[in-house]
Amino acid sequence: MAKQPMLKFVTVDRDMPTKRDANTRKEDFNEIYAEYAEAKAEEQSSRCSQCGVPYCQSHCPLHNNIPDWLRMTATGRLEEAYAISQATNTFPEICGRICPQDRLCEGNCVIEQSGHGTVTIGSVEKYITDTAWEKGWVKPITPMQERTESVGIIGAGPGGLAAADRLRRAGVQVTVYDAHDRSGGLLTYGIPGFKLEKDIVMRRNEQLEQGGVTFKMNCRVGTDISFDDIRNAHDAVIIATGVYKSRELAGPGAGAAGIVKAIDYLTCSNRRSFGDSVPEFDSGELNADGKKVVVIGGGDTAMDCVRTAIRQGAESVKCLYRRDRANMPGSQRETQNAEEEGVVFEWLAAPKGFAGDPVSGVMVQRMRLGQPDASGRQSPEVIDGADYVEEADLVIKALGFEPEDLPGLWEQPDLAVTRWGTIKAQFTTGETEMDGVYAVGDIVRGASLVVWAIKDGRDCADAIMARFDASASVAAE
């Protein structure tokens, strides 16, 4: 049986002040929480049945060796558990926090399928790596030898950083170019801090920088530097820009003040958490405090927006989604969290226009589900005569993201794209039709999960290393 954490009681002298030093209180909390986390990690890990066919592992994009590091954790061999976890995942503490485990590993756990509740794999993964950082088991990036080859990576998101980590450990010279002032991409500016603490991301960024990765921030390709310049400076180039172009809404009043993009809203909130001065927040443009907020969309970004609005002190928060709960693309766990925090979901409801400028309401049309579309999901159909107006002071559009026109922006007509605007690349290697140019993550897949971007970055780095080794072998003959 896993040991239970001991509760600590503090005896207070009635003749002494009862207000305790804040640092002391924090230390006591951290100590109690650490004992609790250790006990829960051991308890949950010991529940793993070590089944012969580990569906948790096969349904993880990285194919993490979950049963083995669960077994190590259950027996107190945490450093070995960390080594196993880190071997296949560049950022396990990040995936442990933000992966939709209910759709991946935990959702396919044999114990979950048998009705006894899943092993909480994500929280154990988070605990293992947090402990590894605390104990000093996470070692600096120290290549065995330096290589002369260099790789330029456009985009400092999870795919680009995963590739940078793997290439730098092999001794390759790596330069990362990014338009923002901090690296991390959506990990830094797109995901709220209550889901992914920003010091966790900054710690990995610092590790990469200290390990020899060069970062060129506030550097926009096509404006501050040309794609050709990057290509000429390196032996290979990885495009890892992600997709940040927001899908738009049509209808009367769609351009009214108070209707904002999800990415702008979340970036503003995250900048505030860093202590940055954000005029759009101070003016109230991207601040939900005291407002009636309506978020349009049913994905994970919509869930991030509604939960951020709650934390900013919104008067009310409602989420409109044109299908029902069973058909929403976002995590059911996130939806439940949002409901527990006070968010109201209006299912089978879609906007048809907006009232007022600045916005005062969303004109909503009720929907029903009809026949399945090409994706197999039932198509929403309008119910005539069932319209109504939802009051709103702030409307946030969370309808998903599309790729920007990179061939046009970068003046690269030979950069082949799909009919969706994503870059054409081999899924296993990231290789594009341009010699020495690779692409990974959402700019290839479309808007997807962080864990898939990490996998793409790692696979692409391995393909580039194989190319470099093959070239070196030919040169040596």
Q: What class would the helix/strand composition place it in?
A: alpha/beta
**Number of helical segments with 4 or more residues:** 18
- Average pLDDT figure: 92
| Shape label | globular
Task: Describe what you observe in this structure.
- The chain is α/β, with parallel strands linked by helices and 477 residues long.
- Helices cover 38% and strands 17% of the residues.
- The chain has helices at residues 22-46, 55-58, 66-74, 78-88, 92-98, 110-113, 121-135, 158-169, 186-189, 198-210, 227-233, 262-273, 279-282, 300-311, 332-340, 406-409, 442-445, 450-476, and strands at 150-154, 173-177, 214-216, 236-239, 245-246, 259-261, 292-296, 316-321, 344-347, 349-355, 361-372, 378-391, 394-397, 401-402, 437-439.
- The strands form four sheets. It has a five-stranded parallel beta sheet, sandwiched between helices. Strands 6-13-7-8-9 form a five-stranded parallel beta sheet.
Short description:
With 477 residues, this protein is of the alpha/beta class. The chain is 38% helix and 17% strand.
Essential attributes:
477 residues, alpha/beta, 5-stranded parallel sheet, 17% strand
Q: Layout of SSEs?
A:
Layout: H1 22-46, H2 55-58, H3 66-74, H4 78-88, H5 92-98, H6 110-113, H7 121-135, E1 150-154, H8 158-169, E2 173-177, H9 186-189, H10 198-210, E3 214-216, H11 227-233, E4 236-239, E5 245-246, E6 259-261, H12 262-273, H13 279-282, E7 292-296, H14 300-311, E8 316-321, H15 332-340, E9 344-347, E10 349-355, E11 361-372, E12 378-391, E13 394-397, E14 401-402, H16 406-409, E15 437-439, H17 442-445, H18 450-476
Parallel strand pairs: 1-2, 1-4, 2-3, 4-15, 6-13, 7-8, 7-13, 8-9
Antiparallel strand pairs: 5-14, 10-11, 11-12
Helix pairs in contact: 1-3, 1-7, 3-4, 4-7, 5-7, 8-18, 12-14, 14-15
